[in-house]
Structures are given as C-alpha cells and as structure tokens.
Amino acid sequence: MNVLFKNIKELIQVRETPVTFLAGKEMRSLPTIKNAFLLVKDGLIADYGLMKNCPDIEIKTIDATGKMILPSWCDSHTHLVYAGNREGEFVDRIRGNSYQEIANKGGGILNSAKKLQETSEEDLYNQSKARLEEIIQLGTGAVEIKSGYGLTKDAELKMLRVIKKLKERYPIQIKATFLGAHAIPLAYKDNKNGYLQMLIADILPTIKREGLADFIDIFCETGYFSANDTQQILEAGKKYGLIGKIHVNQFTAIGGIQVGVKNDVLSVDHLEEMRTEDIETLKKTQTMPVALPSCSYFLSIPYTPARKMIDAGLPLALATDYNPGSTPSGNMNFVVATACIKMKMTPEEAINAATINGAYAMSLERKVGSITRGKLANLILTKEINSYHFIPYSFGNPCIEKVFLKGTEIK
Ligand SMILES: N=CN[C@@H](CCC(=O)O)C(=O)O
Ligand SMILES: [Zn+2]
User: What is the pTM of this model?
Assistant: First the structure.
C-alpha cells in the first residue's frame, strides 16, 4: 500500500539510525518531528521529515492535522490462543481466595487446559482470531503468542497450529512460543521429569519438523518448574533452534534469572519479585526484562520495580500477558498508562518500552518498533491530542483514531 500522511502534528519515535533496544537513561528520550509528513510505499516506511520538505506527488493522501502518528505497539508476551474464560476464578479471588490457592485446587492453568483439550481446532481458531482482531484495533502491530494451555502432545500442537494459521491469515507480525512447561498436568502429577521428557523427546521434534515455534518458554516458579528444569528446557530448545524466554520471578525468586542469562535467553518476563542480585545479573547482558503491569493490576500483586531497574541501567519492555487467568486483557494502551501511573515510568520510557524494546523481545527490532526508513508501516494515528503525554494520561480510553498494518488501514 502507498500513502502519504501530511500535516502530522507530531511524528513519534523517529529513529534515523536504527537501534536494537534502549536501556537505562537512553529510555528517557523519545525523538519526534513536529509538523511532519510520512510517506509509505509498498507497505514500508519510505520517507518522513518536516512538512516543508513534503514531496509533491500523486498518491493517496491522509491529512493528519492535529493528530499524531506513532509505531504500532509491540506486545512481546501473550497467551491469546485459549478456550473459554475463567471469570468464576475472578469472583473466587474477590471473595478472598488467592491465585495460588485456586491453582492448587485444580483451577488456574489446569482449568484452561481442560477446556482447551475439549475444544476443536476450528473453535479454538475462531475464539482466538476474535482476540487478535480486537488487539489490532487497540493498536498492536506485532505480537508473540504462546502455547501452554494444552499440556498434552495433541493439545499443545493444536495451539501451535492455530497460531500458525493466524500468522498466515493476518497482516500483523506474529511470533510463536512453545510453553509446554507451563504447569504439570494431572497425568504427570508425581512425575514432573517424565512430563519434561515427553515435551523434549516427543513434542519438540514435531515442532521443528512443522516449523511451529520461534521461541521456547517455561514457568520457573515454586510449585511449577525449578531452575534445573529451566536449564533442561532451554538446552533442549537450543538443539531445535528455539530461542529461550522465561516466565520468572512472578511470586518467588528461585534462581531462574541466573539460568536464563547463562543460556542467553532473549527475555525474562514478569519480574514482580526482584532481588538486588537479580538486577545485577541482568546488567550488561542482551536479555530483555519484560514487565506485565496488567497482570499485577488484575491479581493485585506487586508491580515490576521498573524505576529501580531502569535507574540501574537496565532496559525494560512492556507487554500485556493477555490470558484467561491472570490478565484477560490485551490492551497495550492500558499497559502503557499503568506503567506510568503505578510503576512511575515517564511517558517517554513507557512508549520506548512498548515499541522498540518490545520489538527486540520478539527479535523483530529490524522490522517494527520505530519510525525508521525500511521498517513496516505498522502505525497508530491518534485522535486530535495536545501532546503525546495524553496517551498514558487518558488511561482506559485509547486515543486511537485509525490503525494501519503495512500501510493499509484496518477497519
Ligand atoms: N504465570 C504463568 N502464566 C500466565 C497465567 C496463567 C493462567 O493463570 O492461566 C501468566 O503469565 O500470568
Ligand atoms: Zn505469561
């Protein structure tokens, strides 16, 4: 698609020289051009600059007077392929049961796994595509989606095949993650190692053969999988060409970050419980810490200590964690606002975390995450707003007028 945006009040996240990710003080700066144009050719960002240098060409034009343009959100952590919902557990929590107590009684991930195992691939696809369409309208232009609600060979592969179909049929960038080690299924209640061996020996070869995943993930947490289990899964993933990511330090710190860094994982996600040594371990590495503020909000658990981490020089990405148990929301606008309101990130830091750093956490930093020549024209056109500070300020009320994927407006 070819299109010329004119009179853009402010073009946000303009990176003339491509960056891989931003860390520490670098996150404070968000380069913009006021009164700008943006030219899209063949779905890519072809050029941009001051309006006074706008090319005079015959092309479809969109007048953006009073409005801003920024790169689409990059949501590097979701579980948006799932079956049914868990609103019953939500009410149980209001009545005083904790997330862990509910999980221990067979609720939680096992509850979703039962539902998913009983759902056909077609039905699962239809439920999931509705969520994907919803997040596209909310401004997301790149998303990672995990398996992990199957917990049997058939059901895990069913999830991954649904993700593959979504990838093929939608213009949004999608990365797939194998999260077989999300919980220990009842059939392996007293045989966790047997379950891990099944994942490694039985499922991984099929994933490789059918090209079903880009990344491998594990829930490294007390009552789920240990640091040693994490080492095993990451090593096995590497053999099959899958880059590591970990769910880690959500409720307890059990050494998963150290194992992750040792294995050069791309990202460590959750991080609600961070010890000083965990922050130290992440310094000077290529591993992206990812915070999930909507999960903290929904479960009333601590927020990732973003201030402490960024002030220590670390990078940080923001993602939704869209899933039926801990975060039934895929709204990146809410994530950005909550990061500012509850985690004391500045709007500049939050927007950097939700665009270029999120792109890095999916190995997509060369394609999306900034306004840079040659990147995909995945864009958010805002309503008329005074400043980009209004984006997190108007929490719960996205100020998006239109969204574009590869330069095409998505209605
Ligand atoms: N913490 C582990 N997994 C998901 C939630 C799983 C669920 O409750 O269904 C998460 O990232 O929050
Ligand atoms: Zn998650």
Answer: 0.98
